[in-house]
Design a protein that fits this description.
- The protein is built from 17 helices and three strands.
- The protein has helices at residues 15-29, 39-53, 65-82, 87-108, 112-139, 182-199, 203-216, 219-231, 233-239, 242-271, 276-295, 305-314, 335-343, 345-352, 354-357, 364-377, 384-391; strands at 145-149, 152-157, 161-163.
- It has a three-stranded antiparallel sheet with strand order 1-2-3.
- β2 and β3 form a beta hairpin.
- α2 (39-53) runs parallel beside α4 (87-108) and α4 (87-108) packs across α17.
- It is globular.
């Protein structure tokens, strides 16, 4: 036993508890899930499950007034900016906003502890899935079959163990799980690492989450892992006693050193090595996003992907190293800049402040690290799971009132 570690509640899972897990899983799939099932389908399923859990009633609360106002202003500006040509993308985004709002309402009817327990249950399974994917794919690769999704070949065994080669030049097996790429997977595994270090301390699951993050081989993920262990150092020392503390300190140093080494190696590979194309593509997204924000700082250009791609193609001359077949055809991977170029700086800043003001996770510095790191590499801000987290930062704070699990009045 390590310290006074609290374990997940025992006992059978009741039907309503299971539905909460289902809602959370649907939210994750709508927030970076693979493209076998369209995002809109996951969003629709999430809305239905949330409405059922809310007894088909959506409570209106004064604590949400800033959030309601923000959604209304965004939709008005986007409707004016995109016009009739963007009705489909505007409607799709409105569904996402509604799904996120309903998910938030479901969250506030459970304590923060129960919400994080639900996350931990799902993410622990996903951590094992990531590790087993590497083992199984290396030992029994001949049993995997190819599935082409969005012009990308994925390799799967029962649609449980999934991976694809990010670049054909580097044939490294990096798990995808149920997500469209390892860069998304790492955000969720970083959250599991957070839960294992800062919520209910469990060194074993912290190590499993770390192994999963190493298996994913994400530069940002490895950097976030190192930072989380630094932030949790006092917690780890406080939980350990005697000789066990000395043993774990030695293991801690070795693990931290390994994570740093792998992170640096991965970074060098992506900037000057065989994966240099990844760095070029991300810089292309960065400059394209900045140029759009400079031209439309207050209103943005809306959510229509075709509009973004048109701007992307127009700015292509600033990065001549990007392959011609990628110019003007790839959506942005920079989630933070995406917020600004879609809805403008004022509304974008008010949303991103939720990174710093969110109320679901107590150690805000650790979650700031995870969210900023994740959003810098993945355009996931406007997805239900992450919007629900950011929405908590837009809630009107009453005196001594936070998201504690008490039903909204």
């Amino acid at each position: 036993m390590v310290g006074r570690r609290a374990e997940l509640d025992k006992g059978p899972i009741e039907a309503e508890d299971l539905l909460h897990l289902v809602a959370l899983f649907f939210a994750m799939m709508a927030s970076g899930g693979n493209f076998i099932v369209r995002r809109e389908i996951w969003v629709a399923l999430l809305i239905l499950v949330c409405l059922y859990l809310l007894r088909w009633r959506v409570p209106i609360s004064a604590t949400r007034q800033y959030l309601y106002l923000w959604i209304m202003i965004v939709m008005v500006i986007v409707a004016v900016t995109q016009g009739t040509g963007g009705l489909l993308s505007t409607g799709s985004r409105l569904m996402t906003f509604v799904a996120s709002l309903l998910l938030l309402e479901v969250y506030t009817q459970r304590s923060v502890d129960r919400v994080q327990q639900d996350m931990s249950i799902i993410l622990r399974i996903m951590a094992i899935q990531a590790i087993l994917t590497v083992i199984v794919a290396n030992l029994f690769n001949n049993y995997f079959w190819t599935v082409n999704v969005s012009d990308q070949d994925y390799y799967t065994l029962g649609y449980i163990f999934n991976y694809h080669f990010v670049l054909d030049e580097v044939r490294r097996i990096r798990p995808d799980g149920f997500f469209y790429e390892p860069g998304v997977y790492q955000i969720y595994m970083s959250i599991l690492l957070y839960l294992s270090l800062f919520w209910r301390f469990n060194l074993l699951w912290a190590l499993i989450a770390t192994v999963a993050l190493i298996a994913l081989w994400s530069t940002i993920g490895l950097l976030v892992t190192a930072i989380l262990f630094v932030l949790a150092f006092k917690i780890i020392m406080a939980r350990l006693r005697g000789a066990f503390r000395i043993m774990v300190i030695g293991g801690y140093v070795l693990l931290f050193s390994a994570v740093i080494y792998l992170g640096v190696s991965n970074y060098e590979e992506k900037t000057t090595g065989s994966l240099e194309g990844s760095s070029i593509a991300r810089m292309y997204d960065y400059y394209t996003g900045l140029n759009i924000v400079a031209q439309h700082p207050f209103t943005g250009i809306g959510f229509n992907v075709d509009t973004y791609l048109a701007y992307s193609k127009a700015f292509a001359s600033t990065l001549t190293d990007l392959p011609d077949n990628a110019v003007g055809t790839r959506p942005s991977t920079n989630g933070i800049l995406q917020v600004f170029y879609t809805i403008g700086i004022p509304l974008g800043l008010s949303l991103l402040l939720g990174i710093f003001r969110q109320r679901l996770f107590s150690n805000r510095l650790a979650m700031i690290t995870i969210l900023i790191g994740g959003f810098a590499g993945q355009a996931l801000v406007f997805t239900p799971f992450f919007l629900a987290i950011l929405y908590t930062g837009l809630l009107k704070a009453r005196r001594a009132q936070r998201i504690t699990g008490v039903r909204a009045a």
